[in-house]
Amino acid sequence: MGSLYLFLKKVYYIVLNVVTFGRGIPVTINNFRLRLPARHYRHFPADYEKQSFDFFKKHIKPGSTIFDIGAHIGLYAVFFAKISNGKVYAFEPTPSSAGVLRKTVAINHCENNITVVPAAVSAAAGKAVFYTSKTNDVSTSNSLVAFDLGDEHKREGSYEVEVVSVDDFAAKNNLIIQALKIDAEGVELDVLNGARNTFLNDRPVAVLGLHPFAYSNRQQTLSEIWDKLAAYRMQVQMDGKDISKESFCSNTSFVYDVELIPQ
Question: Is the pTM of this model over 0.85?
Fold first, then answer.
């Protein structure tokens, strides 16, 4: 029964792609309308990460240069491109996800605004082992960290990927960054370590996704992340409200996002 369902599902998406001439399916997420490739148009709920969308709508200015770290299949990248008409650098090291990301960029006619960078982001440029999940071809749990969440996100394998840092990439491309979305699946501290100049000199806003389950020492790592943000003179908020270090470090959520505003 499972095999038949998967076969029929595959046929359905093939037919849907044909009848829509490969132009994707219109969807509306947080009142933002875009097209997603037929196979993935139901991937996000209509209120997906609403607080982050509202934060970026409020803080991103026209013509901004934005880093989308962990771009996945392009929802945020297209959102950033449309609301800013600026330049978006979408970092996605998973080949299958990057392929869908490029389709999403194309069907939304954002080729002039979005540059897909097939690399992971960490503390320094180089190469690293990237671990993949077998859940599906656009898994959101692929990471530079070898965590295993059991059968639901069981590790499929690993391969070598290019790694860049925020500061090195920005310097090489002569960029001043106004906003970042950081969804790095466990290497948040490394990303921040490689973005010192950007945060101190460019003073961008950001949304930082935290994945405490991936930290070998949850409390220590969260404390180090907080201290790093304090050193960068960033105001930390959750759902639009200031939070303390104690609240930040004691949060028991599996994953959670915080908003960062230059002090």
Answer: yes
Q: Which is it for the CA torsion 104, 108, 111, 113, positive or negative?
A: negative
Amino acid (one-letter) located at 181: K
Torsion, CA 170, CA 171, CA 175, CA 179, rounded to 10: 40
Closest CA to 214 of 144, 263, 156: 144
**SS3 readout for 220-237:** HHHHHHHHHHHHCCEEEE
Q: Cα separation of 176 and 63, whole Å? A: 11
Q: What is the pLDDT of residues 95-110, one digit of tens each?
A: 888 999 999 999 999 9
> What percent of the chain is helix, strand and coil (3-state, nearest 5)?
40, 25, 35
- What CA–CA distance (Å, rounded) separates 78 from 116? 11
